[in-house]
Amino acid sequence: MRLGVTVMPPFPHQSMGTRHYPRNLPHGYRFDRPEVWQQLVRTAERGGFDFVLLADTGGVYREYGASIGDAVEHAAHVPVFDATAMTGFLAAATSHVGIVATRSIAGTAPYVAARTLATLDHLSDGRIGWNVVTGHHRAAAENLGADDQTPHDLRYDMADEYVELCRRLWNGWKAGAGSGDGGSALDPRATPFVPREAVTEIDFEGRFYSSRGPLNVHPSPQRGPAIFQAGASPRGIRTGARWADAVMSVQPYPAGMVRYRDAVKAEAAAQGREPSEVAVLHVIQVFTGESDAIAAEKARIYDEGVDPVAGLVVLSGHLGFDLSTVPFDTPFASLDVPGGQGLIDQYARVDEARDITVGQVAERYGRDTSQPRFVGSGATVAAQLAELFDHVGGDGFIVSPAWAPGNLEDFVDFVVPELAARGLVRTSYTPGATLRDNLRDDTTGTRSTPATPAAATAHPATTAPAHPAAASPAHPATTPPAHPAHPTRPTARENGHP
Ligand SMILES: Cc1cc2nc3c(=O)[nH]c(=O)nc-3n(C[C@H](O)[C@H](O)[C@H](O)COP(=O)(O)O)c2cc1C
């Protein structure tokens, strides 16, 4: 079972109750200093995790209420640090765990990205990953001077060419011309330092990008970073299956996890890749502790601090649609939105969630952005994860800490030993292994087999979930928002919004 962590410094971004959670940022940690995040990556390394992924976004959401006001007042994905810039701080604090930077194709030329990422891959000794994103929200495009967003599928066409050009630059130096080739480090005193015929210009002329090359950085341990991707649409899955070492998904229901896993593995095979080369990972939220009761109490206290307005801001941003313009009890599946159709399908295509309302999804978004939640002692959570892993296949999970750094410490202290006792996770790193090596490591013997149509039929959407919490769509329809009303504009309030 592969294990990763995702955070978006300076806040754990998928848990919008985190700011009010009493255990967040203990011991005088400051959210905008490196120490708390360095502690978090060291904890991931102590748990034998494959990677810590730094999410990123290029602007402040302004969809909800057509204003940035609620986003900044409720710290809804703002502030967000530049993930690539943070990578060096976190790699320097660790020795084995991978550090993955989310980086959009918008805003910088492929050459610039290829050079920065090759540099980081050298300096981290092959532990860098790149989560390739296309800039899925309008504010990010406007901040770069564009009037509007590039259309969805065209963004992925551009991403394909962007990554292809980066790959050519990383591969422009021939075998033997760098430390990425069998560890044969270059001799800084030798002349020729590198034979001239070993380094070639690439003269790339594409539809969107061009570059003469060569890259002025010698081949890094992984010849560029390991590639991550998180597209959920058919076009997004095509790009992920073509390039990625790992793809990620947030699926509130097991049926969606199975569907996503099958689609990715089938697409990888269609593109001539070995499906097991593309690890399929699902994001989860976990509350754990010494006992089931202690874990449940942590979840209860956390839920009291969840901010429904932050959920509405981020969900509106992800949908590209102002949710303040529709009544809270609008069926979520009836929305017609320009972005994030996959978000609607996550609910609309699952029997027990078909009638979920806008208000319910927004509240859940504030709580965990639709991740399945696991609550219990280490043994309880490990048993639930093992069962879900068997049920949905795929290659593992990405923990999204509900607070920093303690929520991940809980996972490593209570759940990891139980998973290790079941032989499901590594107990030590292989010396010198790169991030890509670790993602392909099969020493736990549990790597799932490629999806088959039969596997999909065996777990239809109506199958009972492995874990009740993993399937509970959201708080019940009648649950009022956890917070006192935050009226912002009459339209939102008239629509039943908090
Ligand atoms: C686990 C996960 C992490 C993601 N991280 C980021 C991120 O940090 N920055 C970003 O701009 N988009 C991020 N995305 C959005 C995806 O890159 C993609 O735009 C989104 O899943 C919609 O893809 P689709 O249009 O192919 O369905 C993430 C998505 C998922 C599921």
Explain what you see:
Helix content is 38%, strand content 11%. It is α/β, with parallel strands linked by helices and 498 residues long. It has a single domain (2-493), classed as Luciferase-like domain (TIM Barrel). It is globular. It has helices spanning 34-46, 69-73, 83-92, 110-123, 138-143, 152-170, 234-243, 254-270, 292-304, 308-319, 341-348, 358-368, 378-392, 406-421, 435-440, 453-458, 468-471, 490-494; strands at 2-7, 51-54, 98-104, 128-133, 204-205, 210-211, 226-229, 246-249, 279-289, 373-377, 396-399. Mean pLDDT is 87; it is low at 445-490. It has 18 helices and 11 strands. The strands form 2 sheets. Strands 1-2-3-4-7-8-9-11 form an 8-stranded parallel β-barrel, surrounded by 8 helices. α1 (34-46) packs across α3 and α7 (234-243) crosses α8. 54% of the residues are buried. Flavin mononucleotide is lined by residues 55-57, 102, 133, 136, 152, 230-233, 236, 248-250, 283, 342.
What's the arrangement of secondary structure elements?
Layout: E1 2-7, H1 34-46, E2 51-54, H2 69-73, H3 83-92, E3 98-104, H4 110-123, E4 128-133, H5 138-143, H6 152-170, E5 204-205, E6 210-211, E7 226-229, H7 234-243, E8 246-249, H8 254-270, E9 279-289, H9 292-304, H10 308-319, H11 341-348, H12 358-368, E10 373-377, H13 378-392, E11 396-399, H14 406-421, H15 435-440, H16 453-458, H17 468-471, H18 490-494
Helix pairs in contact: 1-3, 1-14, 3-4, 4-6, 6-7, 7-8, 10-12, 13-14
Residues 55-57, 102, 133, 136, 152, 230-233, 236, 248-250, 283, 342 line the site of flavin mononucleotide (FMN).
